[in-house]
Amino acid sequence: MDCREVLSASYGGVLNVLEPALEGLTKEDLNWQPRPDCNSIGWLVWHLTRVQDGLIASLLGEEQLWIKGGWHTKFGRPPDANDSGYGHTPQDLAKFKSPDVKTLLGYHRAVLERSQRYFSTLSPADLDRELKEPPFLPPKVGLRLVIFLSDSLQHAGQVAYLRGLRQGKGWQKF
């Protein structure tokens, strides 16, 4: 197995966590916050997908699917490439209204598909490529992809945890 397959399978693992965790949830479930200053399930899925969309679009030198694919309209949000949840206040979290599960997963699948196409093109030299912006993130493509994967997996785990917090353990099928 090479690094391209590892990246593809690992990012695909995020979807493998999200699909069962979102199955059967209502908009009320998706927008529920355990406290006013906490993220909702819908917000977390939106955020982790927005961040991946922004990263991959940047690495490809292309427009984000958020805008290019019109996903912002399906979420009722402006076509702002910087609108990914970073810096959201409790008031912003309360205002966020999630679309349904189908839309959340549709956007995530579209971003994952684009990401996996990108991963299949990578060479070791591509992974070692130095990035200048933003300066606070790891400078190499490969390290940045791993950091963003870690963040996505953490958020996917938070989604599953929030579902359990809201509904108890019975939702999980083994």
Question: Would you kindly provide a written description of the structure presented here, covering whatever features stand out?
Answer:
With 174 residues, the protein is mainly alpha-helical. The protein has one domain: Up-down Bundle (Four Helix Bundle (Hemerythrin (Met), subunit A)), CATH 1.20.120.450. The protein has 9 helices and no strands. It has helices at residues 3-22, 27-31, 41-60, 65-68, 71-74, 90-95, 101-119, 124-128, 141-167. The radius of gyration is 16 Å and the shape is globular. It starts with a helix and ends in a 7-residue tail after the last helix. The model has no long low-confidence stretch (mean pLDDT 95).
Give a short summary of the structure:
This protein is mainly alpha-helical and 174 residues long.
Structural class determined from secondary elements = mainly alpha
Strand content is under 5%
**What's the story with the biggest beta sheet?**
none
Known CATH architecture:
Up-down Bundle
Unreliably modeled segments? none
How confident is the prediction overall: mean pLDDT?
Answer: 95
Distance between the termini: 27 Å
Helical coverage, percent range:
55-70%
Total number of helical segments? 9
Structural domain tally:
1
Given the C-alpha coordinates, what overall shape results? Answer: globular
Radius of gyration, in Å, reads 16 Å
CATH level 4 superfamily: dinb family like domain
List the secondary-structure elements in sequence, H or E.
HHHHHHHHH
The total count of strands amounts to 0
